[in-house]
Structure formats: structure tokens, C-alpha cells
Amino acid sequence: MKTPLIFEIKGGSLDDGPGIRTVIFFKGCPLSCMWCHNPEGMSPGFEHSFDSKECIRCLICVENCGAGAISYADKFKLDKAKCIQCFTCVSMCPTGALDVVGKSLGIEKIVESVLKDKPFFETSGGGVTLSGGEPTLNMDFSSMLVKRFKEEGIKTLLETCGFFNYEDFAKKMLPWLDAIYFDIKLFDVDEHKKYCGVGNDKILNNFKKLLSESSVEILPRIPLVPGITDTKANLNRIAGFLISCGVSKVKLLSYNPLWPDKLEKFWSDSLKVPGKMRQFMKPDHLKNCRAFFENSDIKVY
Q: CATH no. for residue 79?
């Protein structure tokens, strides 16, 4: 069984399911959404991160990189093709400006870390949420993990992009889940390929199968991304799809423009992010988005 990398275990969350929750963030995702709010979770492997605010320009990392992968002119650059991921630069950085994203944690280590929060789960009706990245990318590991949480009497919730093998999921993960937050981003297959890197046939088919074959609570979520997922055409088509599936509730994720700031830490070009994607969503626009579903008697969370 492959052990995936975890990039964060976050306690005290109020946004990832009912009650107080501890969220486990997996690295690796089969999608490549251009607006990903967790870009550190897209790659399944270890990565460098660089916080320019903590850097004192001592150049210790440049001088001690045996592969010559780090350079500095007007700013620091990492040549990922040259980097051998020895992470000597990280260990020698005196300020912590350089860091490693991703930890290899066994199942029992994760369970041990989460159990300290169990009293909060019990008093609030909360539990554990698997997020990412995409937890189903490592189905065997995630299966054993949610099973262990159930053995400890902890409720489990999965946040998923829906791009997984349904038969494996139904056998390995579904029996141990209490709820699933299922993202539906774009209805048009070509738009989905353009902005998310893959088609959406598998995603929509998995959603329909789960609704018809499972008793687990399933809540569809739609991230509202300016000019991409929040359009009249897209929301109308998703609303029609949900009605055809007999869905009575949906969660709209109001757009958060803070993700471009993360891109610089991974040497990605944040300057290419359009200006409209750097602004918070206006209340009137969010109200209009809600109306697409409320007018069809779909309750919006």
C-alpha cells in the first residue's frame, strides 16, 4: 500500500462539515483547476516552498545547492528540472524561509494526532474531514484511515472532486463515511477540460451513482469562480442537472481571492492571474447565484 503525503492536519475547522472538525489535507489531485485554493496539494510529491518575507538574502541556499538549482539575481528562482530534492537548502536556511511541503505519516500517526480533538467532536457533533488535494487518489490508504476513525467512534466526511473509480470507492471507502461533499465545478465537458485538465463524465456519473446507490449524506458543492463557474449558463445547467437527480440542497462556495498569494511560494507566476480573480465576490452577485437554485426549490447553504 502506497503512503501518500499529507501537507496539513488542521484542527478547529468550522468550514469543512458540521461541528468542529479536524481536516486532513492530502497531496496529489487528478484535476488541475487553474483557481485551486490549495496549490500545495496538486502535486503528489514533496515540494519546496519559499516565503520571501522571511528571507534575509544570506545566499546560504544558493552556495550550498550541489545541483545548482537555486539562483538569485533580482529574486530567487528554483530550477525544478535540476533539483534533486535533497532539501539541504531547507535544513540550512536560518530563517525558515525555505520549507518542505509534504509529510509521510502512517495511519496510526495520523489517528494519534487527531484523537486529541475527539472531545471537541463529541461536544459539537463534528469529526474528521479528508480533503486535499484528493484523498481518493490513494484509495487503499484512505480506506484504512477512515475505517480506523470509525473504530475510534469518530464521524468521517470526505471532500472530493469526484474523479475516482466508483467500484473501488464503493467497496473501500463508502462503507466508512458519514457524509460526502462532492464538488461540481463546470457542467460543459469542454470547459471542464479547459479549466480543470480533465473531462467531467466520470465525475457526473459518480455523483448520480452515489445518489441512487448510497444512503450516505451527499452534498454537492459549487465553487464560484469569476467568469468561469459563476456564469449564468453554467449555473443554469448545473441546477437542471441537480433537479434531474432529485437533489434538494447545494452548497455554494463564495469566491476567495487569496490563493494567488500562494503561487509565489511555489515559484509559479501569480502575475498571470486576471485582475477579476483577485477580488472578493460582491454580495449582490452571490445573491444572484443563489437565485438560480432557490428558484428551483433547491436549498442553498
A: 3.30.70.20
- Alpha carbons 87 and 45: distance in angstroms, whole number: 13
pLDDT surpassing 80 at residue 113: yes
> How many CB atoms within 10 Å of residue 234?
21
CB 204 within 8 A of CB 184: yes
27 phi and psi angles, rounded to 5 deg:
-90, 145
**CA–CA separation, 209 vs 221, rounded Å?**
17
Residue 37 domain boundaries: 5-44+102-300
Half-sphere exposure of 117 (CA within 13 A, CB side): 25
Measured between alpha carbons, how far is residue 285 from residues 169, 229, 255 in Å? 36, 13, 11
The whole-number average pLDDT for the span 13-42 is 95
Which of 69, 100, 131 is the last residue in one of the domains? 100
The CA radius of gyration of the chain, in Å to the nearest whole number, is 21
Residue 2, C-beta contacts closer than 8 angstroms, at least 6 positions apart: 138, 140, 141
pLDDT at 178: 98
- Of the chain, the percentage scoring pLDDT greater than 70 comes to 99
Q: Is the pLDDT of residue 148 over 90?
A: yes
How far are the Cα atoms of 35, 44, 170, 206, 207 from residue 201, in angstroms, in the given order?
A: 21, 23, 18, 8, 10
pTM of the model: 0.94
Number of domains forming the structure of the chain? 2
Cell 544558493 belongs to which residue?
A: 62
- Is there a contact between 145 and 130 (Cβ–Cβ < 8 Å)? yes
Label the pairing between strands 103-104 and 98-101. Answer: unpaired
pLDDT for position 272: 74
